Amino acid sequence: MLRRRLNRWFGGEDRRVGSRTIYVGHRPCPANEVFIPPKFCDNRIVSSKYTVWNFLPKNLFEQFRRIANFYFLIIFLVQVIVDTPTSPVTSGLPLFFVITVTAIKQGYEDWLRHKADNEVNKYRVTVLEDGRRIQKESEKIKVGDVLEVEEDETFPCDLILLQSSRDDGTCFVTTASLDGESNHKTHYTVPDTERDVESLNATIECEQPQPDLYKFVGRMHIYKNNEEPSLRSLGPENLLLKGATLKNTQSICGVAVYTGMETKMALNYQGKSQKRSVVEKSINAFLLVYLCILVSKALVCTTLKYVWQSKPGQDEPWYNEKTLKEKETNLYLNMFTDFLSFMVLFNFIIPVSMYVTVEMQKFLGSFFISWDKDFFDSEIEEGALVNTSDLNEELGQVEYVFTDKTGTLTQNNMEFIECCIDGHQYKYRDASSEVDGFCVTDGPMNTVQQKAGREREELFLRALCLCHTVQVKESTEQGQGQDGRIDQVDGLMVDGQVVPPLQEQRGFIASSPDEIALVQGAMRYGFTFLGLESKTMKILNRANDVEMYELLHVLNFDPVRRRMSVIVRSISGETLLFCKGADSSIFPRVKQEEVEKIRMHVERNATDGYRTLCVAYKHLTAEEYDQVDSGLREARLALQDREEKLMAVYNQVETGMNLIGATAVEDRLQEEAAETMEALQGAGIKVWVLTGDKMETAKSTCYACRLFKRNTELLELTVRTLESPGKRREDRLHDLLLEYHKKTVQDAPPAKTRVARNWSSQDYGFIVDGATLSMVLNSSSENNLHDYKDLFLQICQNCTSVLCCRMAPLQKAQIVKMVKNSKGSPITLSIGDGANDVSMILEAHVGIGIKGKEGRQAVRNSDYAIPKLKHLKKLLLGHGHLYYVRIAHLVQYFFYKNLCFILPQFLYQFFCGCSQQPLYDAAYLTMYNICFTSMPILAYSLFEQHISIEMLLENATLYRQIGKNAMLRWGPFLYWTLLGVFHGLVFFFGVWFLFSNPALQDNGQAFGNWSYGTIVFTILVFTVTLKLALDTRHWTWINHFVIWGSLAFYVFFSFFWGGVIWPFLRQQRLYFVFANMLSSVSAWLVIIVLILLSLLPEILYVVLRKPRGPYARQKLVQSSAGGIQSPRSSARPLLMRTFSDESNTVS
């Protein structure tokens, strides 16, 4: 950081604001110029947060930013400075424990990051210097170094490809560690550089580092002997990214352009914004309440103390005269000091150890998701992944699910179904069929009736074989005939017979499954793509003749244009442009008389749920091509606004095309997708589908997933519905919104009458497209459209399902943000599998990534990752439900047991003249939260199952009972607080009633004040622990061990602490107090009676209340059918069955 600032001040990198200049091999260009090497950052990767020197101060600073830790630090300092009734150890030791545990956890995690950094930075690489190959550590690479990378090695920094061992000047890489895509990507060398890299004199001018993996703008100046430097454009196809791996290429040479923390990989690994769960917000609210209670207690006691001391003789009794210094002290200073002392005395009402317990519960509880065998997928041999454990309980509070369609609801496994050429349908099936009035005979195309004409059919199939970015994966075992022609390819007629497809002989590599499906579809009808060699594309036609086309330009696909094109030249010199893309993108750019005969098939295929693409072509004259070629070259050399300039050229050439036909590709539903969606809706979760696909295709998918049902009335708000003669779009939009709002909101029955989905009431589905959504979201108050967003949101919230089609990635995030920030702040969840879903995954409260076929970018940016959509059901309805119930009980229980703990201390002040006399010994104050009561609640919060997971999955409606933070609202909080007050009053006044008898021991001696406090503390520990035992529904050996073990440890510790004279204690208040107390029958009696009295109301409530909920109804059905018990209830102890099985729903 210091070095970067010095560079900035003294002419460093920031003077090159727009671009940077790199000297290849650090050679001056031209050779007679003075060479001043520019300064860039080194190649060290630093992902760690701490160093040895800054760990302690930095970690302490971060931990004390938490309010509870800072509060206890202040209390500890007050105890040290002011003469308080309790030892500083009582608050210092718990604080030290919390800080130490958290520091060890964070230190260990950072040590792992350091270890990973060292592995990367010490990796040996080959650098070419002065004709020699030198081995260096990766961290010593500088910008401008020429590196050699061999097959299966990882690129150590971002490189420009200069030379490849392949004859065609290409190389193949995989970027699985960057975006998760395991397919091979093709990269190209810079022309005129691959022959002699070591003597190359060139400079590279490129943009400053930026994180977009798929964008790069630059140009290379190549200097030759006394000649004008030649310019070569550089794009993402020339850039090899750090973290990618070289495949199917023996070796390459490249020059380093970005190193270290300026590589695209490092820039993409910036930390995600911290997401806070609703439980954490509830904890903070409850803390404020208890802080107010604490301050109130301290104020009351301070006031009463001075009221009592104002009476004659009370301020300075004869046995406790004040010193001269005490008499001279300011009264208000004394009052403030006493107030602080009372704050210290009562500060244990704030549960500082709760934060550690919550963190441990979240961290350990997350392993149950990773270990769940039901989440393991045998295809990819992976299970679920937890990227953050801070949101476990949020899985039980989801109200809205936003899901992608392709790869999430569907498998993203494309299969070519049919095509349409000039309005005629072609299907490849095993038998003849009659479809839409067209007689289709199946098999290779040369046996199909020539509906569209042979020339048009072949033109269409050539377009499929040429308009793509597919690479052929070569096989050494591929059979060839004597004449060198390939004998066996998929679906060809050889010697009059159909050769069966041999998938193992020819494989294809592509970034999208759609492209492979189209190329394989062309193979079925006799046109086979053979590969790309030295800018020459080869295809094998049905006559087994090889056709060759020179690839002139590729106009890449992008989500804005929604199409891609290639410009090729045949052997005869004819220049052709082939284009494929979405119908909305192609139809406006072709001759309109050709559209109608294709549109019917496109709409029918979309209704059937198929993905459709339209195919067009255009003949380019020599003048047209020269104009396009010069425009593309000029745009590609531009450093500023290259994307916009390329887009202008693309739009110029992709007009006036001729429409040939369309394709239909099927993407099948994910396994159990319909059942999962139905279960989520049964749980009260509203599902929104956000997709970039066609409306008809997405609508049919929603019907297949049961998001839309036959009785669902669909409300459509799309560009098509906005078209109305004589009306502006804005006016029509306003009318439709008001109409839909009246139907769904104003005329809908009240919310209380439609708690569950009722088939007699009308269900609504809402469909909106991206263009209309832009009008709604970008509405301005100037045009009186400021209420559009509110109307739109209310309509959506009153529909059972919402479909948003033709959506850009940014619009997906905008939708999620709009719902997330709406009234009530509902908990949102986004789930997707591709890079276009990352924005909505990051925006939602909980982000789920699917380990699909579109790469792992969604997984890397998600909070949780699952192999299949079907696993979402158990993740939410099972794990999410249990996580929320567990942590909600943990939070309420912590506040309850601390109130029970400190209330007797407060009441004791009324009987000791508010003299700040502690009721409990310092050891009890210190160890109450750390040792005596911490482990049982931790075990409960990890293993509790108030309802079995099987029952939660069978009865999705149980998920609704905990919705909207039901267990951490003010009602349950008040119940737990009143319960704590009741128990505290029973503990204190029950023992006080016992002590009304002056002689409790056999020898007639009276118990002292420490015996009083010890009896209260014993009842307290046993009561709060047994209360938790009563709440436990699912017993494991760990629960038994920690509950009964904690009680045994308390008894053992009390005997041990009071039975030994400790030399380091100035005063030993509990010496033999505990043993002496247990020698009294009266003490035994009062302990047992008060414990039973405290727990009696809850025991009676649990035993006498009637069973409720679906689980209870199922028990009645089972008992009437023969008394079949659930497997878990029969395995429990009889006593616990009495208390648990009768109350299996959350009230």
Automatic annotation (TrEMBL):
One of its GO terms (molecular function) is ATPase-coupled intramembrane lipid transporter activity. It comes from the Eukaryota. InterPro entries: ATPase_P-typ_cyto_dom_N, ATPase_P-typ_P_site, ATPase_P-typ_TM_dom_sf, ATPase_P-typ_transduc_dom_A_sf, ATPase_P-type_domA, HAD-like_sf, HAD_sf, P-type_ATPase_IV. Belongs to the cation transport ATPase (P-type) (TC 3.A.3) family. Type IV subfamily. Its EC number is 7.6.2.1. CDD domains: P-type_ATPase_APLT_Dnf-like. The keyword Thylakoid does not apply. SUPFAM superfamilies: Calcium ATPase, transduction domain A, Calcium ATPase, transmembrane domain M, HAD-like, Metal cation-transporting ATPase, ATP-binding domain N. One of its GO terms (biological process) is phospholipid translocation. Keywords: ATP-binding, Cell membrane, Endoplasmic reticulum, Endosome, Lipid transport, Magnesium, Membrane, Metal-binding, Nucleotide-binding, Phosphoprotein, Translocase, Transmembrane, Transmembrane helix, Transport. The active site is at D404 (4-aspartylphosphate intermediate). It catalyses: ATP + H2O + phospholipidSide 1 = ADP + phosphate + phospholipidSide 2; a 1,2-diacyl-sn-glycero-3-phospho-L-serine(out) + ATP + H2O = a 1,2-diacyl-sn-glycero-3-phospho-L-serine(in) + ADP + phosphate + H(+); a 1,2-diacyl-sn-glycero-3-phosphoethanolamine(out) + ATP + H2O = a 1,2-diacyl-sn-glycero-3-phosphoethanolamine(in) + ADP + phosphate + H(+). This is Phospholipid-transporting ATPase. ATP binds at D404, K405, T406, E515, F557, K580, R611, T691, G692, D693, R806, K812, N836, D837. It comes from Pundamilia nyererei. The chain crosses the membrane at residues 64-82, 285-308, 339-358, 923-943, 973-995, 1010-1029, 1041-1062, 1082-1104. Residues 121-264 form the P-type ATPase A domain. Pfam families: Cation_ATPase, E1-E2_ATPase, PhoLip_ATPase_C, PhoLip_ATPase_N. Residues 859-1106 form the P-type ATPase C-terminal domain.
